[in-house]
Amino acid sequence: MSGWVPLCRIVGGIWLLFCGFCAQAQNFPDGFSRVLVADNLASPTAMAFLPDGRILVCEQTGAVRVIKDGTLLPDPFLTVNVHSSGERGLLGIAIDPDFETNGYVYVYYTVPTAPRHNRISRFTADGDVAAEDSEILVLRLDNLSTATNHNGGAMHFGLDGKLYVAIGENATPNNAQNLDTYHGKFLRINSDGSVPEGNPFTDGSEQQQRVWAYGLRNPYTFAIHRESGRIMVNDVGQNTWEEINDATEGGQNFGWPDEEGMPAASGTSAPVLVYSHGSGNGKGCAITGGTFFSPTTTDYPGEYYGKYFYQDYCNGWINYMDPDQETPQALPFATNLGTFCLALTTGPDGNLYYLSRPDGALYKIVYGEPTPPFITHDAEPVTLTEGETATFEVRALGTPPLQYAWYKDDVLIADAMESVLVLDNVELEDAGTYKVVVSNDWGSAEGTGITLDVINIVGVDDDRYSMIAAIPNPVTYNVQSVEVNVPPEFGPVAISIVDMLSRELARSYHSFGAGQNAITIPVHNLANGMYHIVLHSGKRRTTIRLLVAR
Ligand SMILES: [Ca+2]
Question: 74's torsion region: left (phi>0), alpha (psi -120 to 50) or beta?
Fold first, then answer.
């Protein structure tokens, strides 16, 4: 953030203006409303869900509070001694991917003793509290200057099982470009703090080897997509721009302090989306939350699924965007939420959650109307040989109960009424375009038609194709692959390599775009000898003799 302390000062001067907002009800799209989950939280900073639905909330002054079955438990999960002046304190929390087995919870906080620094510690849960003396140091970060702002602190595990950590530049902008300090970096570490395989900088200082991305100012929050693993880092800007940056790929420089907002120079990565400082909705002072909204279940309408929601600290709004668009556009969602909200998160129940510092509260945003179905995961096209099993699976959300109907070439398939369609023992006649329609009392959603191609591996030799050749043939020294040009009328084709004992050594499937029908077949593993390359398509079959003589 630009600084909780400076911000409070600014807001103090215009508090009456903000109180005008406070008096108004929150503003959501029709059907949405805000529900209080828990209050009496002291200056909350971050939160995380446990697999069983309990919610852990960090208080800046050092306590991790537990919300269980809708109740704030009186005893904290843990309390650490922190220096909590300015933006320091207990700032981040992450749950181990194997929490159900190992009970590990990771926190990020500012130690109060000199020299002051932030550290990442691991604790082990024992019921609703951390086991006594279970704290293990995971990583000690660099000493802090006297500046109390720009500490970052967000932590999440990636799909690769590595712990990602976002760290501010400690109000020293040049830190962000210096790979030998953790300040101003986005780290990727093993859960014990050690350097993992696969980081972009493999040499140099201990700090450098843990860096995943750099050029960040105060990445107070970030989010990882639970299925794709995509990473969005929300970086708080200085004078002009708030940024959402895609840090999925390692080694990127996000530009600070040479750039803020869209970069002018080469060699830096542009944000996915920016918004400017200023008053009013869609503008603000500090991005303090962002989340991929792709839950396994939700009551929300389909238009919000797959979107990225984010919030501003000063102007009390939540916007969203489609992260899959080339140039995502900001779309309004909620306004009049009040100032100083943060930690926007998608709950396992498919609701958005966020913390309010002035209210000392955790809120969720719920949708109270029925919703028509929407498809979250469509079935995939498939090519099979006769006798194999085709499985088409669709996943959909919407107000239950959902009904499924499957069509082949626009004709309803009798008794295919589940989200999964299984065709045992496919025959050539099963090839076609399959489509699902999901419906409930409020509407329906149609899948994209997907194709099933069926290849007859037995086939009938077709002499008209005896001119098909493999090039080069014979295979001599240094030849890695041969190329076969398949006539377009073959359609999708299976290619097998068969040895002289009729043993199939390899098989691959190919479909062709218009005008593309050359297939490259790797042969570097074949020992010297005679082979057959067998092409199958529908009832056609043709065989090419291939000599390997290296
Ligand atoms: Ca930037």
Answer: alpha
Q: Per-residue pLDDT tens for 479-526?
A: 999 999 888 777 788 888 988 888 888 888 888 776 678 899 999 999
- Spacing, Cα 412 to ligand 1 middle (Å): 52
Query: Model-level pTM greater than 0.70?
Result: yes
Cα-to-centroid distance, 335 and ligand 1 (Å): 26
Residue type (1 letter), 526 = L
Kindly give the distance from the C-alpha atom of residue 270 to the centroid of ligand 1, in angstroms, as a whole number. 7
Question: Which of these, 268, 264, 272, 357, lies nearest to 308 by C-alpha position?
Answer: 272
State how beta strands 32-38 and 361-367 pair. Answer: antiparallel
Distance 243 CA to ligand 1 centre (A): 7
**180 is written with which tokens?**
């030998």
Ligand 1 center from residue 177 Cα (angstroms): 12
Is 510 in contact with 519 (CB distance < 8 Å)?
yes
Domains and CATH numbers, the chain: 4-367 (2.120.10.30), 374-455 (2.60.40.10), 460-548 (2.60.40.3080)
Model pLDDT for residues 1-53, shown as the tens digit of each residue: 444 433 333 333 333 334 334 446 899 999 999 999 999 999 999 999 999 99
